[in-house]
């Protein structure tokens, strides 16, 4: 089985400061892998590097068998749902934010009905009345779940998640856990939440931009 994501001795520098150094790992279809470490250790930088938000200074990044380059980055982003700690929804209302990707030619024929929008929102412990709320008026946790709903509506199978459960109550958190229990979804995440960690297959430990350890689920 070929990996979906592979980092091969990847180093990244921002404004001449090295933020990732010689990072190598692979993520296989259906796996749930979490990046752990202190603040500033490079966890979020790994996610951002994969979608081309940080330039690779050395080494190579691959999506399936495709190398991350200026020419391929658009295809990689199209195949990936990246949900940061404070997602930019890009539209005035939640309904418009959910439907935004379906304005483009690639997804125009897949525009979901209101019933489908409500179905996906309910899965994430969000009620239908949020559709008419302004995107600027909803909480950070709600924005993350709206961004997740958009990924689900688009049928994405690869998710990059940055602290997606940190702002959620217990019921909302369980709803997110239930979504990602799907073996068809592949997840690379950043998290400190112990409940999230125990649901992941592998834990990658980062320190000062280096990968310093790896644990499989159930092994301390």
TrEMBL record:
Record domain ABC transporter: where: 5-220
Signal peptide (residue range): none
Gene3D superfamilies (alphabetical): P-loop containing nucleotide triphosphate hydrolases
Xref: InterPro entries: AAA+_ATPase (IPR003593), ABC_transporter-like_ATP-bd (IPR003439), ABC_transporter-like_CS (IPR017871), P-loop_NTPase (IPR027417), Type_1_exporter (IPR039421)
Pfam families per the UniProt record, alphabetical: ABC_tran
SUPFAM superfamilies, A to Z: P-loop containing nucleoside triphosphate hydrolases
Official protein name in the record: ATP-binding cassette domain-containing protein
């Amino acid at each position: 089985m070929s990996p979906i994501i592979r980092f091969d001795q990847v180093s990244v520098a921002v404004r001449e400061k090295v933020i990732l150094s010689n990072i190598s790992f692979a993520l296989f279809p259906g796996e749930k892998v979490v990046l752990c470490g202190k603040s500033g250790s490079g966890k979020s930088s790994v996610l951002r590097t994969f979608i081309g938000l940080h330039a690779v200074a050395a080494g190579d990044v691959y999506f399936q068998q495709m190398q991350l380059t200026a020419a391929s980055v658009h295809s990689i982003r199209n195949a990936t749902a990246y949900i940061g700690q404070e997602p930019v929804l890009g539209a005035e209302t939640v309904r418009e934010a959910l439907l935004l990707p379906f304005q483009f030619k690639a997804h125009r024929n897949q525009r979901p009905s209101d019933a489908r929008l409500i179905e996906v929102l309910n899965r994430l412990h969000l009620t239908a009345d949020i559709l008419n709320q302004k995107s600027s008026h909803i909480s950070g946790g709600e924005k993350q779940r709206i961004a997740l709903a958009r990924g689900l509506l688009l049928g994405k199978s690869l998710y990059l998640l940055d602290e997606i459960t940190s702002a959620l109550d217990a019921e909302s958190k369980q709803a997110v856990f239930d979504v990602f229990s799907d073996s068809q979804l592949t997840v690379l995440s950043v998290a400190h939440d112990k409940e999230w960690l125990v649901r992941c297959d592998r834990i990658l430990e980062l320190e000062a931009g280096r990968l310093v350890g790896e644990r499989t689920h159930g092994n301390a």
